[in-house]
Amino acid sequence: MIVAAEDEAPSFVLVSGPGEDREIGVSRARIEGGAIVWDVGAGELSALTSEKLRRIGSGLIRRSDVSGSVRLDVSAITGFGVEKLAQALTEGLLLGGYRFDRYRTSSSLPQPSARARVTVALVGSPQDREALQAGIDRAVTLCDSVMVVRDLVNEPPSVMTPRRFVEMAEEIASSQQLEVRVWDENDAAREGLGGLLGVARGSNEPPRMLRLHYVPRDGGQGPKIGLVGKGITFDSGGLSLKSGTGMMAMKGDMAGAAIVLGTMAALSKLGVRAEVYGYMALTENLPSGSAQKPGDVLTARNGKTIEVLNTDAEGRLVLADALSLAVEDGCDQIVDIATLTGAKVVALGSEIGAIMGTSDELMTELRQIGDETGEEFWPLPLPDRYKKHIASDIADMKNIGKAGEAGAIAAGLLLREFVGAASWAHLDVAGSELTDSVDGYSGPGATGFGVRTLATWLATRR
What we know:
Largest sheet: 8 strands, mixed
CATH topology of the largest domain: Aminopeptidase
CATH superfamily of the largest domain: Zn peptidases
Oligomer: single chain
């Protein structure tokens, strides 16, 4: 729990100037007034950033000697903005303290398990208390959404099936007054969701298309916004089978859908004034006698046809249907997010997402907010001359481009065929959804990368 408090016997003091520990900025302990006090070095004030504060908060909460009630004095830092300071520190404290222990017995849990019992008070001057609390409250809302994503992605794939995902989404929707629409396999067949059905053919687990709808109390201001997430709850590659190693992290291939759900869960708490639709395309991608085959042709919701030459390029197929639905619902701005291509990981690694789209203004907004949230996105082009990469001899397009060339861009060009005239941005977060080690305020496990950017962006819509 994080609370705001007035100055009283702090356990930690946040100061400007370099700390002895370069990663978390925590120096050796000293005795002051009968208490053990640590100085937290935040670096030179001119170089202080929200991301550095998050990492300080995460480093503090992960210290083995932090337990019980801790008071962190932030009054020595001036000129940064009290609310912004409180939000960043709180995000680091909460995200750094996350663990997914549902499937661990007591014998394998880290000892002592202190972080679940820590109460942190951010201490400042009396006139700063309101701003401190505002920053804390905003951070708690955003981190709650990250926890939704992390919990969903961390679940085993045989537990987090499309139907179970929908059940959890319905619980969130009920608590947040979100309207729900679910397409089952019969609805999908009747309404032409050919991309979703094609990918689902190899699995005994039925697919689902899920839409959540948020309408603010005043009916919505400005453009109608659609969020679209890829929800492959396990990706074996289908008949274009992945290697054993390649499958190990494929429970995370539904992270895009989880990010959309986590974002939708925050809208009312953040007071978002735009009308927002969230679409999640949910299925497994498995091999079997009924699975789609390389060479098959699918017809997406908007009537365009796709030749499937690699069944492991399946995310773009389910997104084609979801994007088409967003256009039909009249969304003026559409942002999709997906763990889409290995080519993105090759180009940018796991810590930076790729962004492509049709609107420079929309992409710039998302990039600027991503820089502030610590979720960086780097732009890739969508040149028309590269459309030849996905040209098919027998269909409107094929689902893969040229071998070894511009794989992330080829996927983006295919998606562009399904967004109509809407302003659109595509976020490829492949490799960013899971980490196998502690990195700042993430890991090991699911990261929730992207949800704070989308939620913060929506909160700016007026």
